[in-house]
Amino acid sequence: MVQLKKRNCTVGIDKGELVSFISENHEFVHQKGSPGWRSSDTEMFPIIGPLNEADFRVQVPRGSGAIQDQHGLLRELKYELISQTETAAIFKKEYIAGTRVKNSKFPEKSNKEWLFWPYTFTFKKSFELKEGNLEISFTISGERDMPFMLGYHPAFKLYTDSPVIITDEEKINLDEVLAVGSRALQVENCKFITLKDKKDITIKTEGFGHFMCWTEVRNMVCIEPITFYPYAVAQRELHTGFEYTKDIESIFKVSLFV
């Protein structure tokens, strides 16, 4: 377990997963074992969304397509801790083009035992605890013109019966998120959201452009920065939401202000 500390804030990171963010003795992160979700955060890469209706295959410019399960294969890879200080830590995942990756959803939720992606990439996740906020950065490097989507999937612990999600244009209550179900509620063209609960937390982003919100219980909610909302198209058209890597690294940031 990696722990970061700065004044009255502490952060817990378990193998690259944000499992705790405490400020003034208040825990903001959904705890594993609590109802709702078995994780506390994860990344969605190189695709966002399900592919069961497309036989778990997504169209890419190279080859005849790639076999992916819901939210991509990155979550099946293990993070390596590459640096750590009292207030910062950097983790890395590497993938070699064409390498078969065991699908943890097989056979209960998927008929594909192995996943693969026809591009080589390195994915870094860095944490930096600053004064009053936690900055989480995602750096993607590798082959030029690799298609990808990126989503960050943190879960926040709820304390009150009527939390509110506030953007610069609307207020969303928990019942509205619950009503959408597994598809997740789209929040389009949005770079920051405030979750008002017992204590407020504001999520500000760089590079993502949108959010989606998901929960199926009342004790947590996922507020997820995304580059593309996957339910805007049919699963066989998911490739229309890709971005493409360039010669320089692609960097995305999420800052949690408390």
Number of domains: 1
Q: What's the helix count?
A: 1
- Biggest sheet character: 9 strands, antiparallel
Number of strands: 24
Gap between N and C termini: 23 Å
Secondary-structure element pattern, one letter each:
EEEEEEEEEEEEEEEEEHEEEEEEE
Strand content: 35-45%
User: What is the annotated CATH architecture?
Assistant: Distorted Sandwich
pLDDT under 50 segments (min length 5)?
Answer: none
Shape label: globular
Q: Report the C-alpha radius of gyration, rounded.
A: 18 Å
Return the CATH class. Mainly Beta
Tell me, rounded to a whole number, the average pLDDT.
Answer: 97
Task: Classify the fold: give the CATH topology.
Answer: Beta-galactosidase, Chain A, domain 5
Keywords: Calcium
Protein name: Aldose epimerase
GO biological process, one term: carbohydrate metabolic process
Subunit structure: Monomer.
Q: How would you describe what is shown here?
A:
- There is one protein chain.
- This protein is an all-beta fold and 258 residues long.
- The chain has one domain: Beta-galactosidase, Chain A, domain 5.
- Helices cover 3% and strands 45% of the residues.
- It contains 1 helix and 24 strands.
- The protein has one helix at 174-180; strands at residues 2-6, 9-14, 17-23, 26-27, 41-44, 57-58, 66-67, 80-84, 88-95, 101-102, 114-115, 121-130, 133-142, 147-148, 151-157, 164-166, 171-173, 185-187, 192-196, 201-206, 210-214, 220-226, 243-244, 250-257.
- A 9-stranded antiparallel sheet has the order 8-9-12-13-24-20-19-16-17. The chain has a 5-stranded antiparallel sheet with strand order 5-15-22-21-18, with helices on one face. A 4-stranded antiparallel sheet has the order 1-2-3-4, with no helix packed on it.
- The two termini are 23 Å apart.
- The mean pLDDT is 97.
- Pfam families: Aldose_epim.
- Its cofactor is Ca(2+).
- Keywords: Calcium.
